[in-house]
């Protein structure tokens, strides 16, 4: 007789094994991972009526895309040229954009619907740039074009997504008041092209809006602008109309921003760079004597520290070259409290001190006194006492530590609590600075024998880094030799500003007065400095372009 019990257990074991295999097999199945991020904008599948339709009389335009989409910033991005009293109505119907046209179209007229960056896909908001639809209510379509490049007047870099637009000369008074209807955006190489233009005379502009802009209306306080001084007659296709954008200097002085900071200091920013600025506390007048003021290098921002913050309000007069520009009032909340941190920054970048510099501490608050006895300087963990703590003679935010630093040594400088006493008896907490001395062999010197094209003119010769930030500059007007001494090895460049008004700074343009920025020339030769090099190059400045 068969052993039924054994068979039962065998079947049970087989079922258990099968269940385990099924479990582990299922466990190995992973959730599908997402593919590459979608970075492609929607594509146009069809347009009804077709783009470039003549004798247009349709009530609606249907534009079908290959995916679902959305309309963003319609009031800023969408326009029709010529403008209409009643704007077209845009509606989304699945993957189709339905545009209802008004009944007020002019006869024998070419219209351009410009979508700017209004059309984007649903998921990633990838934008179709410079999408347009053109039609004519007559037999002909305007077919003239204008193209060129947009660059930055200071850096020479191509401007991506700058808005280039034209205004008929009779409508130029609308500049800065209303957005243009004929515009396009530059590509990544700064190129632009305006198509389907009507024969006429136009003013040409480029606009680089600040972050948060996008309305295509020039705001002098925040945007950069470029323009052609003279009106342009467009009666044929025109290429190579290049524009340079610049940040326009404000025509009038005013205080852009004023505030009492969380540490009790007072900050100001101005619309203009001042030449000989001065701030005076007029009320309460007693606070003016002990105040401390620090302007930035360009004299368009300032910070003020007062020894007494018990006031309800304070008045500050802003002057330049002895002339009163503006008086501002700041109010302090009665319950306002302030937090002060006396932990400084230092000039040992990446833990390395430039061997041609003194170790410098820079505080965010004025320091009234310091106690060197609370400082411990360790050289390779060995305590050293032959250092000096010196207050900067000009900048009241800085202290220097002088010591015969040595290469191949590591330094730890420990500052105990209360080493520094700042304004309002604020004191530092414990902090430590660590660094090594960078070898002199890592630095180099460049000399330039310079020839100028015209000794009656001024030139500003600037030594700049890869990011085109100026490091050092010289004002010259004759054949001379200049030296850029003891700079870290790396890539550097030379640019020259043609200082037409001989004021020693680069002046931007002004749209209202019709002035352009002072010209800048970049030397095409890279000035690479190799470790422990000292060399002299020749530089011939060309005539102003």
Briefly summarize what is shown.
It holds the Pfam family Big_5. The chain is mainly beta.
Q: Can you walk me through this structure?
A:
- This protein has 545 residues and is mainly β.
- The chain folds into five domains: 44-136, Immunoglobulin-like (Sandwich); 144-245, Immunoglobulins (Immunoglobulin-like, Sandwich); 255-331, Sandwich (Immunoglobulin-like); 345-438, Sandwich (Immunoglobulin-like), CATH 2.60.40.1220; 443-540, Carboxypeptidase-like, regulatory domain (Immunoglobulin-like).
- The chain is built from two helices and 43 strands.
- Strands 11, 12, 14, 15 and 16 form a five-stranded antiparallel β-sheet that branches. It has a five-stranded mixed β-sheet with strand order 26-35-33-29-30, with no helix packed on it.
- Strand 5 and strand 6 (96-100) form a beta hairpin.
């Amino acid at each position: 007789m068969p052993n039924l019990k054994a068979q039962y257990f065998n079947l049970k074991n087989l079922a258990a094994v099968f269940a385990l295999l099924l479990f582990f097999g299922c466990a190995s199945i992973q959730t599908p991972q997402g593919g590459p991020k979608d970075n492609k904008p929607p594509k146009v599948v069809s347009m009804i009526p077709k783009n470039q339709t003549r004798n247009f009389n349709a009530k609606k335009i249907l534009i079908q895309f290959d995916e679902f989409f959305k309309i963003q910033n319609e009031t800023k991005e969408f326009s029709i040229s010529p403008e209409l009293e009643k704007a077209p109505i845009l509606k989304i119907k699945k993957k189709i954009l339905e545009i209802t046209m008004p009944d007020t179209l002019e006869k024998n007229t070419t219209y351009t619907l410009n979508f700017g960056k209004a059309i984007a896909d649903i998921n990633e908001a990838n934008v179709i740039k410079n999408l347009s639809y053109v039609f004519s209510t007559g037999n002909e379509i305007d077919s003239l074009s204008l193209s060129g490049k947009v660059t930055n007047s200071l850096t020479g870099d191509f401007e991506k997504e700058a808005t280039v637009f034209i205004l008929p000369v009779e409508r130029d008074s609308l500049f800065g008041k209303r957005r243009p209807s004929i515009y396009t955006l530059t590509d990544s190489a700064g190129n632009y092209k305006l198509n389907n233009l009507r024969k006429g005379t136009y003013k040409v502009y480029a606009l680089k809006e600040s972050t948060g802009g996008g309305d295509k209306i020039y705001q002098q306080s925040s945007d950069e602008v470029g323009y052609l001084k003279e009106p342009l007659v467009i009666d044929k296709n025109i290429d190579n109309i290049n524009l340079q954008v610049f940040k326009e200097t404000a025509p009038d002085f005013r205080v852009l921003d004023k505030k009492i900071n969380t540490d009790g200091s007072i900050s100001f920013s101005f619309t203009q760079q001042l030449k000989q600025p001065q701030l005076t506390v007029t009320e309460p007048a007693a606070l003016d004597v002990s105040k401390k003021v620090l302007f930035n290098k360009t004299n368009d921002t300032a910070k003020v520290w007062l020894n007494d913050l018990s006031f309800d309000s304070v008045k500050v007069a802003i002057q330049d070259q002895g002339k009163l520009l503006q008086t501002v009032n700041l109010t302090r909340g009665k319950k306002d409290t302030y937090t002060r941190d006396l932990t400084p920054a230092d000039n040992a970048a990446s833990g390395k001190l430039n061997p041609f510099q003194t170790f410098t501490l820079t505080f965010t608050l004025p320091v009234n006194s310091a106690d060197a006895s609370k400082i411990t300087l360790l050289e390779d963990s060995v305590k050293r006492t032959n250092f000096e703590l010196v207050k900067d003679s000009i900048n009241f935010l800085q202290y220097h530590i002088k010591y015969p630093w040595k290469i191949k040594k590591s330094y730890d400088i420990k500052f105990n609590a209360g080493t520094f006493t700042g304004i309002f008896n604020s004191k530092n907490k414990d902090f430590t600075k660590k660094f090594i001395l960078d070898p002199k062999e890592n630095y180099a010197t460049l000399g330039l024998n310079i020839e100028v094209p015209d000794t009656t003119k001024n030139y500003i010769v600037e030594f700049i880094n890869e990011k085109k930030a100026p490091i050092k500059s010289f004002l010259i007007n004759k054949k001379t030799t200049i030296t850029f001494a003891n700079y870290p090895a790396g890539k550097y460049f030379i640019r020259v500003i043609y200082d037409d008004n001989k004021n020693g700074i680069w002046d931007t343009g002004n749209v209202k007065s019709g002035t352009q920025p002072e010209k800048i020339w970049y030397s095409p030769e890279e000035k690479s400095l190799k470790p422990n090099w000292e060399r002299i190059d020749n530089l011939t400045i060309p005539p102003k372009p």
